[in-house]
Every structure is written in structure tokens, then in C-alpha cells.
Amino acid sequence: MKRAITSDAAAHERVIAIGALAARTGVKVETIRYYEQVGLLPAPERSEGNQRRYGRRHLERLAFIRHARDLGFPVETLRGLLALADRPDMPCDEAHRIAARQLADVRRKIAHLRALEAELDRIAQSCLGGAPVRDCAVIEALAKEQRADSVPLGKRDAGSAC
Amino acid sequence: MKRAITSDAAAHERVIAIGALAARTGVKVETIRYYEQVGLLPAPERSEGNQRRYGRRHLERLAFIRHARDLGFPVETLRGLLALADRPDMPCDEAHRIAARQLADVRRKIAHLRALEAELDRIAQSCLGGAPVRDCAVIEALAKEQRADSVPLGKRDAGSAC
DNA sequence: CTTGAACCTCTAGTCACTAGAGGTCGTATC
DNA sequence: GATACGACCTCTAGTGACTAGAGGTTCAAG
Ligand SMILES: [Zn+2]
Ligand SMILES: [Zn+2]
Ligand SMILES: [Zn+2]
Ligand SMILES: [Zn+2]
User: Fold this and answer.
1) Smallest Cα–Cα separation from B133: which of A48, A98, A72, A34?
2) Domain end among A66, A90, A114
3) Which runs of E-coded beta strand occur in A36-100?
4) What DSSP character marks residue A26?
5) Is A16 exposed, middle or buried (0-12, 13-18, 19+ CB in 10 A)?
6) Dihedral sign of CA atoms A86, A88, A90, A91 in order
7) What is the DSSP letter of A156?
8) Is position A98 within any domain?
9) What's the Å distance between residue B68 CA and nucleotide C18 C1'?
10) What mean pLDDT is predicted for residues B57-71?
């Protein structure tokens, strides 16, 4: 019995393993499996030994997912976008609405971060260092209550990763 | 036997329950308990019936925490900041370094979001809507691969909450 | 045929909370 | 003093979007 897929056939039919798909899209192997698990990427065929074998369609869909995620679309939203992309005859207005919402979201975030930037800058300027902590305006500024741009705790994200 | 704490005594000695502390600081009750659990806020005394009783020190410390969190300092960093605030004789340079790092972080985030904003704006402009999905430039733009500002997956945050 | 990288599944951990179940406490009113 | 009822307690699990690891199997080259 011949193996279902040889490397030669793979090259011809563009059937690739998960590692190759990862390399081509820049999405980690674990993340690809995760996308399959949550239903973003359809489950591919398997080799006789139960390994995933991807085709061109998967590559394209994963590139789509990656790009949309890079742009900050949340996975839930992506689901709608993907469903839409699968129906070429539908009008595209919904896609525009989704993109506009995302843009508005990004702008809100920018506005918020700019407020933080201003306050942090002010705080950082308020003491030049070298003082004992008890006299430091930075520490004092943090200790002071504020009522300005406070946002309900838990829905914020400003200081973690980029 | 008299109760350890009456409401009258509470008013005089400024000993308050967790709900009152939450109301005064704008931090939710659950979050306060969480801060205690992770060691940000020291465990307060308890009433005879095992309920938390907070004093002025807790109020101040929680306000500090809240403000720093609002400014996006991650909890880990906050730990350092609080340790510092507890040592009034130390020089404050470390506090400045922490604040500067946070400011730089916020600025990096802003830069990143501005790049996203530009691309999203370009995409949103590229099709005015009303077309079938197959011809929509928005969908097409998302499907196209990109090599520009891509960031390792999982360390990004652009589209979720504010 | 043997090696070893790549693959598989499953579970748990991340961050900073948030929500809920199921039970106890405190106090105001009767 | 009994009763009501909100506030409080602990503990566990869930969120988003992955990431990391254990422990085992498969593939393809030499
Ligand atoms: Zn200083
Ligand atoms: Zn502030
Ligand atoms: Zn369109
Ligand atoms: Zn792009």
C-alpha cells in the first residue's frame, strides 16, 4: 500500500502539514489548533497517521484570520466576517459596519491612551528624582485620589503588552 | 459582652466594612478581596463575625492602587511601587524609572494603535458598500497577506474593550 | 531499520478580574 | 426577642485568546 501523501505529492497538490502552514502564515502551531478548536478554521483532512493536512483554502482562510486579528478584530467579530466572506453574493454592507465599528473602537482606545499619556507625563515631570520617597511628587500623585478619566476596573487595558 | 464594633464606633474610628470601602474608592467588593488575596492590599482586622473591617490606611492604599491601575500599571509593577511607597527614606529614583517605563509603554501602544487606525481607515475607504461580497475591497483587503506591522500573536490587544 | 524532529491529545496556566452558589452576619424594625 | 433582609463570607469556575508542557505517536531521511 502506498502512503496517502508523499512529500512529492504534497508539493504538487499543495497539501501541507501544520508546521508548514504555521511557517507560511506566521501563526503558531498551537494557535492554529486553537482556531480549529473554536471553529474559526475548518478541521482539515488527516493523514493515515492522524496528522492534519492543509490545502490552499486553509492557507487563505488562516491568512485572513491572521490579518483581521492583527487589526484587532476580536475573534467573535471575526466569526461574522468569515461567515460573510463565505457568501460572495451577499451585499457587503455588514462588512463595512464591522470595519467601521472596529475603527471607532481603535480611536476610542487611542483617545483613552492619550489621556493616560498626558497624566503620566505630568506625573513624571513633577519630580526630577533624587528625593526621598516621602517627598516624591510621583508617589504623591499616585496616592492622590482622582475623579477624571476613571473607567470601571476590569475593562481596562493600558499598561500590559503592546 | 459588648460587640467589638458598633456603627457608632465605626463612624468615630473610621472603621468601615468592605462595601463602604468599595463605595468610597470605586473598586468593586470582589476586586478588593482579590487584591487582598494576591497581596496588594494587607488583610484587615475582622469583626467577631469574621467580616473585614478597614481603616484609613486601607482606604489610602486602595486609592493608590486604583489610581495606578487606572494609569495602566500592571499589578506586578504596582507591587514594586507599593513597596517603595512604604519606605519613605529611600530615594525615589526607582519610582521614576517605573513611571518612565509605563509612559514609554503607553506611547508604544499609541503608536501601534495609530498604525492600525491608518490601515483600518484605508480599508474602510476602499469600498463604499452596496457591492456583493465577492467584489468588496474591505473583505479583499483582509484576505490579502501583509508583512507590515505584524506582531506575534497573543501579545496584542487592540480591538477589545477600552 | 533507526533516529529525531514534527506531530498528536489533553490539561493547566496566563492576567486581572468577574460571576455565581450556598451559607453566615449585622442591624433595623416589630 | 424574633424576624427579615441586605451585606458579608468562602470557594470555584469562567472570561479572551492564546501559551506551555507532559506524555505519547508518526513521518521522512539516512
Ligand atoms: Zn521623586
Ligand atoms: Zn489620574
Ligand atoms: Zn464593500
Ligand atoms: Zn495589515
Assistant:
1) A98
2) A90
3) 45-46, 52-53
4) T
5) buried
6) positive
7) -
8) no
9) 20
10) 94
| Grid coordinates of B18 | 468592605
Residue reference for cell 492619550: A114
Chain A residue numbers touching B143 (CB-CB < 8 A): 60, 63-64, 67, 85
Q: Which residues surround ligand 1, an ion (CB under 5 A)?
A: A 127, 131, 136, 138; B 92
Residue A74: CB less than 7 A from any atom in strand D: yes
Examine residue B59 and state whether it is found in any structural domain, yes or no. yes
Q: How many domains does chain A have?
A: 2
* pLDDT above 70 (res A153): no
CA dihedral A104→A160→A113→B81, nearest 10 degrees, is: 160
pLDDT, tens only, B29-61: 999 999 999 999 999 999 999 999 999 999 999
Which residue on chain B is closest to A150 by alpha carbon?
B70
β-strand pairing of B45-46 with B52-53: antiparallel
Which residues in chain A have their CB less than 8 angstroms from residue B161's CB?
Answer: 155-157
Tell me the three cell numbers of residue B94.
526607582
Which domain range does residue A74 map to? 1-90
B133 with A88: Cβ contact below 8 A: yes
Cβ separation B143–A64 shorter than 8 A: yes
